[in-house]
Amino acid sequence: MKSIKFNPDLCVNCETIDCLMKCQYVTFSDIAEAREEKLKINDGKDSRVLHECLTCYSCQEYCPYDNNPFFLLVERQEEKGVLPAPKPIVEEQLRMMAPKGRITKQAVSGPVVDMCAFPMLTGCVRGKLFEGASTIVGTDIFCNIMWLHFAKNSTIRERVPQMIDNIMSFYLKDSDTNELVCFHDECYGTYTSVADAYGIEVPFKPIHQFDYYNQRLDILKDHIKPINAKIVYQRPCSNRLCPQTDQVLDEIFEKIGAERVPRKYDRENALCCGGVPRAHQRDELADELVEKNINDMLSVGATYCVFNCPFCMATLGQEVAEQGLMPILVSDLVQIALGE
Amino acid sequence: MTTDLINRLAKIVGPGFVSGEAEERYLYSMDPGTMPAAAPDAVVMPANTEEVQQVILLANELKVPIVPMGAGLVLSGLTRALRGGIIVDMKRMNHIIEVNPQSRYAVVEGGASQGMLKSYLKKHHPQLKHSMPDAPPIATMAGNVCIHGSGHLSVLGGSHSDMLTGMEVVLPSGEIIRTGSCSVSGEWFARSPLPDLSGLFVGWAGTTGIVTRLGIKLFPSYKHNDVLIFVAEDADLMPEIISRLTSTQVAEDMTPWMSPKPAWAKGFLHINIAYGAHTKKELIFKRNLLQASVREYIDQKIAGFLPLPPPQKGRFLEIPSPDLARFADLRKGGGFEYVGALMAIEHFPQAYRAGLAIAEKFNVSYSLGSRIIGAGHCMMFFFAYAFNRADAEDVKRASDALEATNEAALKIGGIPWKAEEPAQKQIIDKMDPNTFALMDRIRSVLDPNQIMNPGNWEK
Ligand SMILES: Cc1cc2nc3c(=O)[nH]c(=O)nc-3n(C[C@H](O)[C@H](O)[C@H](O)COP(=O)(O)OP(=O)(O)OC[C@H]3O[C@@H](n4cnc5c(N)ncnc54)[C@H](O)[C@@H]3O)c2cc1C
Ligand code: SF4
Ligand code: SF4
């Protein structure tokens, strides 16, 4: 088993301990305490952080040295048997999302859009934005990043190479492309950040959905009818693994005339949608996060609440709609601007 | 004799509402369960209490059996004409007579269906609802109360016979009587404080009279509704978990389920917990109470609530639940029957293990589960088996499994619910002989000619 890419010396010499000091869910009296807890984690000792962590991924982004603090934390949780969620809950989900072996060869041609395990999303791939696209979907190509929320690095190590192999041998190998457009931010995070840190080889080139839309908008610029609306954005946990794509999103919004209204819980300060804490049986915290997010969104006066992640939309969408904001995925917003 | 019977019945109900034709006799000879067919000589559909009375008087005169029937969905063959005679199909008597929103009860005719009352309340009294069973909506209120059914408000209000407030019944001898408050005041608010004569008609498998009207309790219908699914791995914990969850007095309905399909669920024990509230705040408060009651197990990480984003909750909030009907079609061919046994909560682990062992032994498609009745006062534990009606071997396998299940349930201390004819005999064998003797004496007083659904509750 390859260990997580991580350099303990960087932490020993770290001046800010940003990974923990910026954490929105675990608090520390001062930097000395944060350092002490971080070094405990690095040394494989028990730390309260392992128990209190919300698994929000953010420390991955906070660390200025890309030292993979979150991946390491999950590794330690699993080693120490610290379960963020009850065992039957994890076990059932492991089975639900297990590869079913139902995959069959399918001729695809670029752009090939990876819909992860969610067939209900394939309807999003339509119109000019996705002209000529093929979609692939199913639990046999599930990105499996969700196990970071459940102290299951072992499942990631076991299943991700299998998924990559499926994507190649059933789809990409005989196709005209080596690129895979990841409709789901999480897939992109898996095939870039996770794969790199866990030493998993990726033989294809993952393309983030935002990069794809951004390029398409350049090609389709004559079709754009600016939507001229204010929007608020709900940034998902997995986007912490590819923070550079947040700027691409800004470019997309600009091109389609959507004003991303600044709000407290956006960008680096984004707040969890509340979905994962419910799985961790922390519903009261989840309620608080939902309330904070919604109040924050409402305070800035927008028409749309734009989601990158379908799971965040499933978690918050109804509440958002009840409060008078229209929940929408980035791809659908772009399609509105393209007159579809 | 049959022609005479048909002609005389036609005089009572009109020629369009009686039949002795082979097609009707065939259709009415069976239900979707495993019991062998038993055809009636005639089927009649009365329009009102007086017509029911005249049909019964005629049956007495001709000494012909009478079998009351609602939708015929009981699954255990209780509406088959075991000794021939007349099936009295009540579906024409389907009026909702009264809804009292203040005292929260409804009075309906003996053939009014669950679906009718549900849609009537939705339209005219959206603040009220009744406890729906998961049976297809055509199932009748009377048929369900008569078998001590249970449904979506059974944690709140007990079994559906507990929700009964009174009845109008045509006795086997033809008299029309009333039970409960309506026998004194004309209002249908309660069975107390009178001698409880309603008990003469529930649980008797249609052997003591035909219910032509009944009053049932209604409950507040909430604007906000939610469902939680609790998951555990250890059957031995279930009685305590159920006890803790019901102790909050928050749930409307609690239905544990254990099924090998979908594959992810196999081996896990789930409890769907439905509850509602007038405001979101109240709903969250109730959720917190439920969660706090089982926090100890969550903290030990041995059980917990399945995370379900709001869009995924919809199917678990559907009433009636489509799950059993879906299971019924598992083997194709539409055969489906279950043993439901009423038993004390502490027998959950035994019942669960017995169900697994029987399913394995007889190699049948199974689904196990239960519905909690009252605040954990008892449960209806069900062992459901799907089979292909067109495959005689498959039917036999299911039927053998059902018999073994009835036996196991009785051994555990449970009592088969809405027991089919052979299971009634199994129950009688275990019953206090004095109790059975009293049942017989009551029947001989009520039904001197033994015309009411004969073949049931007999040794
Ligand atoms: C998919 C499925 C799910 C089910 N789920 C549930 C459930 O959740 N809860 C539940 O309780 N049941 C359930 N059932 C069992 C059954 O369908 C219901 O109990 C149903 O309500 C019975 O009503 P019915 O009108 O079909 O009664 P019938 O089958 O017509 O009659 C039942 C019994 O009552 C007698 N009877 C009927 N009407 C009268 C009357 N007017 N006067 C005197 N006696 C009468 C009959 O002779 C018979 O003995 C389910 C069945 C199916 C197929
Ligand atoms: S993980 Fe990064 S931020 Fe945290 S202590 Fe190490 S180097 Fe510093
Ligand atoms: S994953 Fe989130 S909650 Fe956990 S330590 Fe990192 S920043 Fe804090």
Account of the protein in words:
The complex is a heterodimer of chains A (340) and B (459). In chain A, strand 7 (304-307), helix 14 and strand 8 form a beta-alpha-beta unit. Chain A contains 15 helices and 8 strands. Chain A has helices at 8-12, 18-21, 31-42, 48-52, 58-62, 69-80, 87-96, 153-172, 185-198, 209-219, 244-255, 275-279, 283-299, 310-322, 330-337, and strands spanning 112-114, 134-136, 179-182, 205-208, 229-234, 258-260, 304-307, 326-329. Chain A folds into 3 domains: 8-80, no CATH class; 96-213, no CATH class; 223-337, Rossmann fold. Chain A has 340 residues and is an alpha/beta fold. Chain B folds into 3 domains: 2-89, 2-Layer Sandwich (Uridine Diphospho-n-acetylenolpyruvylglucosamine Reductase, domain 2), CATH 3.30.43; 96-220, Uridine Diphospho-n-acetylenolpyruvylglucosamine Reductase, domain 3; 224-419, 3-Layer(aba) Sandwich (Vanillyl-alcohol Oxidase, Chain A, domain 3). Chain B has helices at 2-13, 22-27, 49-62, 114-124, 141-146, 154-157, 238-247, 280-293, 295-299, 310-317, 323-328, 348-362, 392-412, 421-430, 433-446, and strands at 18-19, 42-44, 66-69, 86-89, 96-100, 105-109, 128-129, 164-170, 176-180, 210-217, 219-220, 224-232, 253-258, 269-277, 303-305, 334-343, 365-373, 378-388, 415-416. In chain B, the strands form 4 sheets. Chain B has an 8-stranded antiparallel beta sheet with strand order 15-12-14-13-17-18-16-19, with helices on both faces. Chain B has a 5-stranded antiparallel beta sheet with strand order 5-6-10-8-9. Chain B is globular, with a radius of gyration of 22 Å. Chain B is built from 15 helices and 19 strands. Chains A and B meet through helix 7, helix 12, helix 13 and helix 14 of A and helix 8, strand 15 and helix 10 of B. The complex binds flavin-adenine dinucleotide and iron/sulfur cluster (2 copies). Flavin-adenine dinucleotide binds next to strand 3, helix 5, strand 10 and helix 11 of chain B.
